[in-house]
Amino acid sequence: MTDETATKPEVTMEEIVALCKRRGFVFQSSEIYGGLGSTYDYGHYGVLLKQNVKNEWWRAMLQDRDDIVAIDSAILQHPRVWEASGHLEGFTDPLVQCLGKCKKRWREDHVREEQLGAADAEGEITCPECGGELTEPRQFNLMFKTHMGPVEDAGSVVYLRPETAQGIFINFKNFLQFSRRKPPFGIAQVGKSFRNEITPGNFIFRTREFEQMEMEFFVPPAEAEKWHQHWMAERMRWYTELGIRPSHLRLRAHGPDELSHYSSATSDIEYLFPIGWSELEGIANRGDFDLTQHAKHSGEKLEYFDQATGERYVPYVIEPAAGADRAALAFLVDAYDVEEVEGRKRTVLRLHPRLAPVKVAVLPLVSKEGMPERAREIFDQLRPLMQAEYDEGGSIGKRYRRQDEIGTPWGVTVDGQTLEDGTVTLRDRDTLTQERVPADELPALLLKKLSEPWKSPKLG
Ligand code: GAP
Fold this sequence. Notes:
The protein is of the alpha+beta class. It has three domains: 13-85 and 145-331, BirA Bifunctional Protein, domain 2, CATH 3.30.930.10; 92-141; 358-459, Rossmann fold (3-Layer(aba) Sandwich). It is built from 14 helices and 23 strands. The protein has a seven-stranded mixed sheet. A five-stranded mixed sheet has the order 20-19-21-22-23, sandwiched between helices. Helix 11 links the parallel strand 19 and strand 20. Helix 2 (44-63) packs across helix 10 (324-335). The chain is globular, with a radius of gyration of 25 Å. The relative contact order is 0.12. The chain binds glycyl-adenosine-5'-phosphate (GAP). Glycyl-adenosine-5'-phosphate binds next to strand 10, strand 13, strand 16 and helix 10.
């Protein structure tokens, strides 16, 4: 935590949702049928943004270090996986239903927190919607159930995975064998997970279908605490290097009654979302819980044998588990800014250039003879190198406003002078400075800018 920790969100969720819809980042899913509760479709810029978030995560896991390997496991797994992992029995939330007018369902712990100040506080709670009496809580399993094959009987039940992590544990033996790794080493995965959340909401913060970025780091038991500390620091660094202001991030250790069934210690990285401080990523010490459980249920030995020392042990697991959608939302919120420029309101996404959906927009000033053609040539030079966009429609001011709202860090204007001396104007999204540079130097110049460290201009 930093000294100047922020206390108030600066932007509302409504403003973020409106921008996402206006500029085609994220839409309500199945909109023409009235929408399906808390499911969202990503449009062009949303896909590019989320892809960049995932790419940066992969870069941090695979390229910036050499002790992690990648996996892409199946969403549908043997039902016994969820028996062994404890999800069938323990992956539940306390559900209460309103007995009054509205009959709505709620998560009991959330209502307690809202009405009594803590999830485990004793005392009477009432329906947040209509004030009605609530039922006694019952444990509701969050896994989506379906059937495999043409017969829908008990023997064909399978579950959509509620976390990507189990696909890693059940492959531990394969990885020891084929990737010739020894602890400490990690296995990383990005993919969809599904949870039948009782109260999803707050846009893409909590949905029933979402993408996770999880890494299981297998370590000798005696080193678990050291690596837990390491991963907390590393993950905080990842967010701040990608532009999140440190004052809007904090680490919070779980209390004993908050811990998941598998965890002996977890800390959340929290971000100051428009809904207040909320979990962005969890970093857990899962101990040997998962490997031991799968060994017991499958009969396979899931341990590491060190030939050099003759030592045999079940590694402990340190797990940084992030959500790609939730991270994309945090980056959007942190980047959102409104300022007045020459008497006009300017909305701008001050995204880290590496996260920005489009890196550079090429804009011919007017459609004077030869100008669009020259602008197209410049665009064609740039687009193999980075996501670029060509736009000749509407006034230049309007085109810049559009690019500002999707967070494009650089704009190239092609004008009359370009045709005379080969230079273009390069506009910076954040400082609004414009400099003339030779068009031929643009590829090298922009690649250099893209590789430089970046700091949010909101930090001053
Ligand atoms: N394997 C550990 C695990 O799944 P988790 O804290 O339940 O831990 C990890 O989930 C991350 O996944 C969360 O910090 C969050 O970013 C994301 N996540 C979890 N549930 C989500 C949901 N319903 N909608 C969007 N993201 C979610």
